[in-house]
Amino acid sequence: MHYSKLGETGLVVSRMTFGAMTFGQGSLVGELHNTIGQDQADRMVGAALDAGINFFDTADMYTNGQSETILGKALADKRQDVVIATKCGFRSGPALTQSGLSYTYVLRSIQGSLKRLGTDYIDLFILHIPDPFTPVEETARALEYAVQQGWVRYVGASNFPAWKAQKLLSQQKSMGFAPLSILQMYYSLLGRDIEAEVVPFARDNGLGIMTWSPLASGFLSGKYTRDNPVPEDSRRAKFDFPPVDVEKGYSVVDALR
After folding, report:
1. Is 62 a catalytic residue?
2. What is the value of pTM for the model shown?
3. Which end of the chain has fewer beta carbons closer than 10 Å to its terminal beta carbon, N or C?
């Protein structure tokens, strides 16, 4: 396993991160349902640890919080040896107040994640998606409060355009707050948009980059072919995301083969 610093922090993480989005039993999004319980999750996490992975990623909205609960139990005996990232921002309940990046919701989400993960601190807390209604100054204050309380060690942002990430980062630095350490973005052989603006922005500011869906939600695994474009029970058959140029995708898979 290869390791790297998390951005310009002193935290060392494995270059490969274990994503726990599939943990839990029930609806994840739309018609896509998860089926992984605690026993199977324990085996998967154990295999990752044996391979040298020390970085685990989840979110409050994955299977209605079950992912955090299951991951926390799977890592309970190894908590001091691993780095856990979780996120908030997507809707987590029916009330209008149960989404976004307001001061109140961010802090409430962090407290909920701490409880589900069974830990007293989160190594990396990530803003899952931008909130068009909440000023970045308000979100910055919430993140700083969580850091000062010891609930969160480092902070990051996911799916932010470069300009909005810069606005948040500038606010944090001007106020002397703990700044963003990473951006988590979609990046794969079929989705390279971040190379235009996000990557230069991250390099210029010393931010690390985590990627989500590096296999384009399984398309690059090789199971999707011209002869079998929608395999039965495949993830993309139920949730065709992220979007890909299918013909280009087949050519890329042919090259990979």
Report:
1. yes
2. 0.97
3. C
